[in-house]
Amino acid sequence: xxxxxxxxxxxxxxxxxxxxxxxxxxxxxxxxxxxxxxxxxxxxxxxxxxxxxxxxxxxxxxxxxxxxxxxxxxxxxxxxxxxxxxxxxxxxxxxxxxxxxxxxxxxxxxxxxxxxxxxxxxxxxxxxxxxxxxxxxxxxxxxxxxxxxxxxxxxxxxxxxxxxxxxxxxxxxxxxxxxxxxxxxxxxxxxxxxxxxxxxxxxxxxxxxxxxxxxxxxxxxxxxxxxxxxxxxxxxxxxxxxxxxxxxxxxxxxxxxxxxxxxxxxxxxxxxxxxxxxxxxxxxxxxxxxxxxxxxxxxxxxxxxxxxxxxxxxxxxxxxxxxxxxxxxxxxxxxxxxxxxxxxxxx
Length: 347
Known about the structure:
Layout: H1 20-32, H2 38-42, H3 49-53, E1 57-58, E2 67-70, E3 73-76, H4 80-89, E4 97-101, H5 107-118, H6 135-138, H7 142-147, H8 151-156, E5 162-165, H9 174-177, E6 183-187, H10 190-202, H11 208-216, H12 225-238, E7 243-247, H13 248-253, H14 255-265, H15 272-276, H16 279-286, H17 289-293, H18 296-300, E8 302-303, E9 306-307, H19 326-339
Parallel strand pairs: 4-5, 4-6, 6-7
Antiparallel strand pairs: 1-2, 2-3, 8-9
Helix pairs in contact: 10-11, 14-16
């Protein structure tokens, strides 16, 4: 991690630093964008309705937000119409950068790092959107904006856009997979994923043992988790210039190396001067879990019933040990081994 002395002096030497007024305009625009109500999402209708209603359904996680199985993966029901429509409509720009992940695998952190790397000559640390916006506001999830019928907002974003998705690789449109825009994917040890996932979407309505069973069976939004990871891993082997495959644990162990790999891959490498002046370390510290979690915007702000602290819990490796029995951990490890058998992949 960066030298603590850097934290009190976070500042970038920007070639075109954005004025504070301009940052405020970005923030206000984000706040004024329409957000969905539950009724809007549940009431979505489309030409895909008949297909979706014929799919296997599961309400164990939440009766209010059932999931349905489509092309061997489970999806939140009310997002299926817009995902299918998005596949037909969304056209990436060559300069787009896509941040992809399974749920609770380091998404918030990777979004923050990628956005900060790309825009390091535009924003100073002392006048940065992250001081008043969550990284999910700065790096919008494509399918969520289509779900909110707010897809026009994506077109207003200046290039280069940093966009996010939880979609499986096979669910991305051909316009994305065949484009020049790079995809950065991050995976995380499944035992920690299920613990974090339960704290996020299941804790108030389902015991951990029940969530664990559903996860093992693959019946979870965007799951099975192993198949999600395997699609991106295999695709990264076939097309390493298109997909950068990252492991959360390796990024946590050596974030400096991870950030430099990330910057090189997306086409924003650090200059020798930037490395000498400690910019890489500053970015790592600025985007660190503790730094972001302690910001007022992430402690007190949010949209509707979803508060920004919802995205911040512990961010540690091995937290599963406080939730699982030895038998549970052994069972999950066995499933993981079977799923990745012959793939060459290990966590």
